[in-house]
């Protein structure tokens, strides 16, 4: 699916996100956890653990492009949303763009789950 | 061209049926599989229901294969559907709703039902079995409304049910027909030790009692026994045994006896129909345990897929009671009989018992109580029909008691590849050897991640380690060198030494310089290294919020719904009407869901929204109680000499003083203390990291107690005469633990690892080293500050961590 620019919303300046400390944004009624990694990238995923019991993700420990979920310690790939073995599952990811120190996150009805 | 896929219909969605399906899927894709289950759940681990009842696991936790798994493997699943008959003529399986599904092969794995005693009144409301999730839910429900419960049956299931109900707060009596508990698995000696231990845990027993009638109107109100005595009970669990569920087979004209009769390849008397698990009877035996069903499933899978296999020749069964803190194990022939030679060792001090039975020199059975560390090895030796030798004797029985001396060196060489190593997940030796040799795995953690072995109860860990050792040979020592996590091979001591030697300052630096495989570490090593750095450089290390677990990062305890619990500090468990009023006001204003008194004498404010946390702290204007921290939680106290007529020391005063002194300092794990004014010990110092008991001439100090996962009574450390000495010794103990403890290691484990005498030598006997420890902790204590205050004065961090960004568009 290609995304037009309209799908992206400005969610804050880069400075509003601490490195390796997640932050929740609310966009189109969705709770999205945004992570700024130590290499300068920013990732956005749905703030809902794929563990059967759910729970938030924003407060997990970030290592490289992986997230260790705060409640059950599942290891989640921030780029793909895939849960790493031995657990399995997937979290919805959202496209991010960085422009002039601004963070833009895209959602659309197609992306929202 | 489309290939015809044979239709396999599986009747029964339990452990036996699905593990057989898993084995079949490994061998072939030629089957079109349909599974029928009468329970409304996906496949779950029935043997772990005891943990659900006990509260240590939820039903979600024990699901083995979720619905996605069935979908991923192209299996059609019908839950909540009972199959009534196999129509051999039409080659169709018929359900209770009259639906017909054609088959080429059928697998019956209908398991068993609770055996309900045929006594008057057994159909009353409030009488349940203990077999499935529905039973388990009924028990959880009953515990909310009713007080008195009776469990009929003192076997494995009955005892696990009883323990669960006690845990849920019920008054439970186990009624048993025999004089010995678990008489089918234990001998008299082990039974009596078990009963004594369970009585200590709050279960009551009525032995040698034959239930004649269940009393009550609609709902059960009690039991009447054959001798006319009566026991009051508002809830009754029947756990007298199981009955193979043979209804479908019987209805279909398949040969049944007690169970569905099968041959050595799990074939029933009907062409194309197989059966495995508790519903079967093989060579006259019906098994009610988990190991045989994996063994049967494996042979069935090979046979049905046309792969050559050895016949099934029966299983050597062993039993393990799943009650925390009570270790019981038995395997093979364990009751003394003619022709047995018995090797036994009973130790009443350590409360352990070990018995090995030989027939002509060959090991045929064993019973262990209290210490079951040899269970895996014994199980293996008995399966192998090993002969007892002097060497084996030495390694098993040692020269001291219960195998205290010589340590094991036997190999797993003789185990066959098909043998199940992990009973919970059905992993064979062959699978484990395979991942070691073909995928190059070298640690238990890797094997766990890849195969699932050791993942559930962990009982098979020793044997997995032995296999690893055996396969890797000389390579084991280097390969098995386990670091603090999967990112490094370095242990705690090495890391601490390297940090000091190289002057490393941040976790990132530690990981880069010391060659971590994952450059930014993981959720295990990041918090650990951050702690070690803070311990080594108390004044200069900048605490890394991003390396803290959520609770410590947010300075509050996260709950499963994402809200938080706030616990204000109440020094020594003492508060004031003004503080209580403030707590009440704030709780009302921020819509706190529950205000709960904790086990450590303070108040939990449960259910605060993340964005409200800073305001709650500000308005409480009380210090953080550190309910979330790896640091001093509380100092529990009794009333003491200020008010109590027995108190000889001021426990409230001393408790508050110690709590003020040591609060906020980072420690390897959470830390609890208690101060008692007299030896009546009302503040329960025996289960605290440091417990202090006042007496006429001063104080006695205890260390290493724990009331948590692995309960441990504290050891008496020393006696002191003055308050100053008491504080100094506490300081030195805490600092010594800070400096030598592994991250997340409680003092109960620390004391056992380092040794009580060793710790005494450093702190009690050596004034010089005590002094140095005290100096170092004083320096570290000067650096601490209250995290709530700190966060309130740091607008930028507070904003970035607690505020939700709302994006308008």
Automatic annotation (TrEMBL), chain A:
<keyword id="KW-0001">2Fe-2S</keyword>
<dbReference type="InterPro" id="IPR012748">
    <property type="entry name" value="Rieske-like_NirD"/>
</dbReference>
<keyword id="KW-0534">Nitrate assimilation</keyword>
<keyword id="KW-0408">Iron</keyword>
<keyword id="KW-0411">Iron-sulfur</keyword>
<dbReference type="Pfam" id="PF13806">
    <property type="entry name" value="Rieske_2"/>
</dbReference>
<keyword id="KW-0560">Oxidoreductase</keyword>
<dbReference type="InterPro" id="IPR036922">
    <property type="entry name" value="Rieske_2Fe-2S_sf"/>
</dbReference>
<feature type="domain" description="Rieske">
    <location>
        <begin position="8"/>
        <end position="105"/>
    </location>
</feature>
<dbReference type="InterPro" id="IPR017941">
    <property type="entry name" value="Rieske_2Fe-2S"/>
</dbReference>
<protein>
    <submittedName>
        <fullName>Nitrite reductase NAD(P)H small subunit</fullName>
    </submittedName>
</protein>
<keyword id="KW-0479">Metal-binding</keyword>
Automatic annotation (TrEMBL), chain B:
<dbReference type="InterPro" id="IPR036188">
    <property type="entry name" value="FAD/NAD-bd_sf"/>
</dbReference>
<keyword id="KW-0004">4Fe-4S</keyword>
<dbReference type="InterPro" id="IPR036136">
    <property type="entry name" value="Nit/Sulf_reduc_fer-like_dom_sf"/>
</dbReference>
<dbReference type="Pfam" id="PF07992">
    <property type="entry name" value="Pyr_redox_2"/>
</dbReference>
<feature type="domain" description="NADH-rubredoxin oxidoreductase C-terminal">
    <location>
        <begin position="318"/>
        <end position="385"/>
    </location>
</feature>
<dbReference type="InterPro" id="IPR007419">
    <property type="entry name" value="BFD-like_2Fe2S-bd_dom"/>
</dbReference>
<dbReference type="InterPro" id="IPR016156">
    <property type="entry name" value="FAD/NAD-linked_Rdtase_dimer_sf"/>
</dbReference>
<dbReference type="InterPro" id="IPR023753">
    <property type="entry name" value="FAD/NAD-binding_dom"/>
</dbReference>
<protein>
    <submittedName>
        <fullName>Nitrite reductase [NAD(P)H]</fullName>
    </submittedName>
</protein>
<keyword id="KW-0560">Oxidoreductase</keyword>
<dbReference type="InterPro" id="IPR052034">
    <property type="entry name" value="NasD-like"/>
</dbReference>
<dbReference type="InterPro" id="IPR041854">
    <property type="entry name" value="BFD-like_2Fe2S-bd_dom_sf"/>
</dbReference>
<dbReference type="InterPro" id="IPR017121">
    <property type="entry name" value="Nitrite_Rdtase_lsu"/>
</dbReference>
<feature type="domain" description="BFD-like [2Fe-2S]-binding">
    <location>
        <begin position="420"/>
        <end position="469"/>
    </location>
</feature>
<keyword id="KW-0411">Iron-sulfur</keyword>
<keyword id="KW-0001">2Fe-2S</keyword>
<comment type="similarity">
    <text>Belongs to the nitrite and sulfite reductase 4Fe-4S domain family.</text>
</comment>
<keyword id="KW-0479">Metal-binding</keyword>
<keyword id="KW-0274">FAD</keyword>
<comment type="pathway">
    <text>Nitrogen metabolism; nitrate reduction (assimilation).</text>
</comment>
<dbReference type="InterPro" id="IPR006066">
    <property type="entry name" value="NO2/SO3_Rdtase_FeS/sirohaem_BS"/>
</dbReference>
<feature type="domain" description="Nitrite/Sulfite reductase ferredoxin-like">
    <location>
        <begin position="559"/>
        <end position="621"/>
    </location>
</feature>
């Amino acid at each position: 699916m290609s995304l037009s620019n309209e799908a992206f919303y400005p969610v804050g300046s880069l400075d509003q996100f601490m490195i390796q400390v997640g932050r929740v944004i609310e966009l189109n009624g969705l709770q999205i956890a945004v992570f700024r990694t130590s290499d300068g990238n920013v990732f956005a995923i749905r703030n809902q653990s794929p563990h059967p019991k759910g729970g938030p993700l924003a407060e997990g420990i970030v290592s490289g492009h992986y997230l260790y979920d705060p409640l059950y310690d599942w290891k989640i790939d921030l780029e793909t949303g895939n849960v790493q073995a031995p657990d399995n599952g997937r979290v919805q990811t959202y496209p991010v763009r960085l422009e002039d120190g601004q963070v833009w996150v895209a959602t659309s009805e197609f992306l929202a789950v | 061209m489309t290939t015809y896929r044979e239709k396999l219909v599986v009747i029964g969605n339990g452990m036996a049926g699905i593990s057989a399906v898993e084995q079949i899927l490994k061998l072939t894709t030629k089957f079109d599989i349909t599974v029928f289950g009468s329970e409304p759940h996906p496949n779950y681990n029935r043997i772990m229901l005891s943990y659900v009842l006990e509260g240590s696991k939820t039903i979600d936790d024990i699901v083995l294969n979720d619905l996605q798994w069935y979908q991923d493997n192209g299996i059609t699943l019908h839950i909540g559907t009972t199959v009534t008959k196999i129509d051999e003529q039409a080659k169709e399986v018929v359900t209770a709703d009259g639906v017909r599904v054609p088959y080429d092969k059928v697998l019956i794995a209908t398991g068993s039902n609770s055996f309900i005693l045929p006594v008057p009144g057994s159909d009353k409301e409030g009488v349940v079995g203990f077999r499935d999730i529905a039973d388990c839910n009924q028990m959880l429900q009953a515990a909310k409304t009713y007080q008195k419960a009776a469990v009929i049956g003192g076997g494995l299931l009955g005892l696990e049910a009883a323990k669960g109900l006690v845990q849920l707060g019920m008054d439970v009596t186990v009624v048993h027909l025999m004089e010995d508990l678990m008489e089918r698995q234990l001998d008299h000696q082990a039974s009596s030790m078990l009963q004594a231990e369970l009585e200590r845990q709050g279960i009551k027993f009525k032995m040698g009692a034959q239930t004649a009638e269940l009393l009550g109107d609609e709902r059960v109100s009690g039991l009447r026994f054959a001798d006319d005595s009566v026991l009051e009970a508002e809830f009754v669990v029947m756990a007298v045994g199981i009955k193979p569920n043979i209804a479908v087979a019987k209805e279909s004209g398949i040969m049944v006896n007690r169970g569905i009769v099968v041959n050595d390849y799990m074939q029933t008397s009907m062409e194309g129909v197989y059966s495995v698990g508790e519903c079967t009877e093989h060579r006259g035996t019906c098994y009610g345990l988990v190991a045989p069903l994996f063994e049967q499933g494996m042979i069935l899978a090979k046979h049905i897929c046309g792969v050559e296999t050895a016949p099934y020749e029966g299983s050597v069964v062993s039993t393990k009671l799943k009650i925390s803190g009570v270790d019981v194990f038995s395997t093979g022939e364990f009751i003394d009989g003619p022709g047995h030679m018995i090797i036994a060792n009973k130790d009443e001090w350590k409360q352990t018992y070990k018995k090995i039975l030989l027939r002509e020199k060959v090991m045929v059975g064993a019973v262990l109580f209290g210490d079951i560390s040899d269970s895996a090895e014994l199980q293996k030796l008995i399966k192998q029909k090993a002969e007892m030798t002097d060497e084996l004797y030495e390694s098993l029985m040692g020269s001291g008691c219960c195998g205290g001396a010589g340590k094991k060196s036997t190999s797993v060489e003789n185990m066959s590849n098909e043998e199940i190593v992990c009973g919970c997940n059905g992993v064979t030796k062959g699978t484990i050897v395979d991942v070691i040799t073909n995928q190059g795995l070298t640690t238990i953690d890797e094997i766990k991640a890849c195969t699932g072995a050791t993942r559930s109860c962990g009982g098979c860990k020793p044997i997995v380690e032995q296999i690893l050792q055996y396969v890797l040979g000389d390579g084991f020592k280097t390969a098995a060198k386990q670091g603090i996590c999967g990112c490094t091979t370095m242990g705690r001591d090495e890391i601490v030494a390297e940090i000091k030697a190289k002057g490393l300052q941040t976790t990132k630096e530690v990981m880069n310089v010391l060659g971590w495989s994952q450059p930014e570490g993981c959720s295990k090593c990041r918090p650990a290294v951050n702690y070690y750095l803070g311990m080594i450089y108390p004044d200069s290390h900048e605490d890394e919020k991003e390396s803290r677990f959520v609770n410590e990062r947010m300075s509050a305890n996260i709950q499963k719904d994402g809200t938080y619990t706030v616990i204000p500090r109440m020094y020594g468990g003492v508060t004031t009407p003004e503080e209580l009023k403030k707590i009440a006001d704030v709780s009302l204003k921020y819509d706190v869901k529950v205000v709960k008194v904790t086990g450590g004498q303070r108040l939990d404010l449960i259910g605060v929204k993340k964005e409200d946390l800073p305001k709650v702290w500000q308005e409480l204007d009380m210090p953080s109680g550190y309910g979330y921290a790896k640091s001093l939680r509380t100092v529990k106290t009794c009333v003491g000499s200020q008010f109590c007529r027995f108190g000889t020391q001021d426990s409230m005063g001393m408790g508050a003083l110690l709590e003020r002194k040591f609060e906020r300092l980072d420690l390897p794990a959470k830390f609890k203390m208690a101060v008692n004014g007299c030896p009546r010990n009302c503040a329960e110092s025996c289960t605290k990291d440091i417990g202090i008991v006042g007496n006429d001439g001063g104080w006695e100090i205890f260390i290493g107690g724990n009331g948590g996962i692995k309960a441990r009574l504290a050891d008496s450390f020393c006696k002191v005469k003055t308050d100053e000495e008491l504080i100094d010794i506490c300081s030195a103990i805490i600092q010594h633990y800070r400096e030598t403890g592994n991250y997340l290691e409680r003092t109960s484990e620390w004391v056992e690892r380092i040794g009580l005498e060793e710790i005494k030598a450093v702190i009690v006997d050596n004034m010089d080293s005590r002094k140095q420890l005290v100096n170092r902790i004083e320096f570290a204590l000067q650096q601490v500050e209250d995290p709530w205050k700190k966060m309130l004065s740091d607008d930028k961090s507070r904003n970035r961590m607690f505020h939700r960004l709302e994006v308008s568009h």
